[in-house]
């Protein structure tokens, strides 16, 4: 995707800059949850990469436990991130061609990136390539199989961003991950947070009724929601030993 589509205006209108480092916001808890997953499944002290790091909010929460790198295609966002977190190594880079050596990273996180890419299969191959054997990939993307998606229709959250050009069902993502040489550890969802779902109940009540399971999961940092019980599907996978991942150019 062209860098110009992910400029300052994009970050301002997609909650990133507005919530910034506001503690205990929904966005803050989301990043906290991913950091908890990283600590649960990856080796602490290892070298981590966030693909599509934006303003660096998740990288900030990873910093106490990992040697963190962040790549993004937007120089403006990286400048803001580097200013706030000088200890993190941020750099311009594409998910489809990562500026890292093969077998060099212990953890890769790709949080809502692949749906923006024309060639998400290349991004998955690249994540596999840069991971060490037994390295961990955490990948999330909008969930086309969400149970409540039919209630939202065209207003479903996954359809609201015009840069979402590669929406797929969980089984299609699973195929790409396995073809790249990744072994699944967990597949789960993030809960129903895109309220309202029904017109007869106040949105505040729906946020509690529909959002409670996802909120509990985020607080505990323990994934337990079935893959269809949320607006995003999240994969935690391990790179198999003996796998030589192809590069996008091969």
Overview of the structural elements:
The protein has 250 residues and is an alpha/beta fold. It has one domain (3-239): Rossmann fold. It has nine helices and seven strands. It has helices spanning 8-13, 16-19, 26-41, 57-62, 75-84, 120-130, 149-152, 170-179, 203-220; strands at 47-51, 67-72, 89-92, 105-111, 131-142, 182-189, 232-239. It has a seven-stranded mixed beta sheet with strand order 3-2-1-4-5-7-6, with helices on both faces. Helix 3 packs parallel to helix 9 (203-220). The longest helix has 18 residues, at 203-220. The chain is globular, with a radius of gyration of 17 Å.
Keywords:
250 residues, alpha/beta, Rossmann fold, 7-stranded mixed β-sheet, 9 helices
């Amino acid at each position: 995707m062209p860098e110009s589509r992910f400029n300052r205006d994009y970050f301002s209108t997609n909650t990133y800059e507005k919530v910034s480092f506001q503690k205990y916001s929904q966005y803050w808890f989301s990043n906290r949850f991913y950091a908890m997953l990283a600590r649960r499944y990856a080796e602490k002290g290892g070298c981590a990469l966030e693909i599509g790091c934006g303003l660096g909010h998740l990288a900030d929460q990873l910093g106490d436990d990992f040697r963190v790198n962040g790549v993004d295609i937007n120089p403006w966002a990286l400048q803001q991130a580097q200013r706030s977190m000088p200890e993190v190594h941020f750099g311009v880079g594409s998910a489809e061609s990562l500026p890292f050596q093969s077998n060099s990273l212990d953890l890769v996180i790709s949080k809502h990136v692949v749906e923006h890419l024309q060639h998400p299969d290349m991004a998955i191959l690249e994540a596999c390539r840069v991971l060490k054997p037994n390295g961990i990939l955490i990948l999330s993307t909008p969930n086309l199989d969400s149970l409540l998606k039919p209630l939202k229709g065209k207003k479903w959250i996954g359809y609201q961003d015009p840069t979402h050009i590669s929406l797929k069902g969980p089984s299609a993502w699973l195929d790409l991950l396995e073809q790249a040489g990744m072994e699944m550890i967990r597949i789960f969802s993030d809960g129903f947070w895109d309220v309202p779902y029904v017109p007869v109940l106040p949105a505040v009540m729906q946020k509690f009724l529909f959002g409670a399971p996802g909120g509990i999961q985020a607080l505990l940092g323990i994934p337990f929601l079935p893959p269809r019980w949320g607006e995003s599907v999240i994969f935690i996978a391990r790179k198999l030993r003996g796998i030589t991942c192809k590069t996008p150019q091969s």
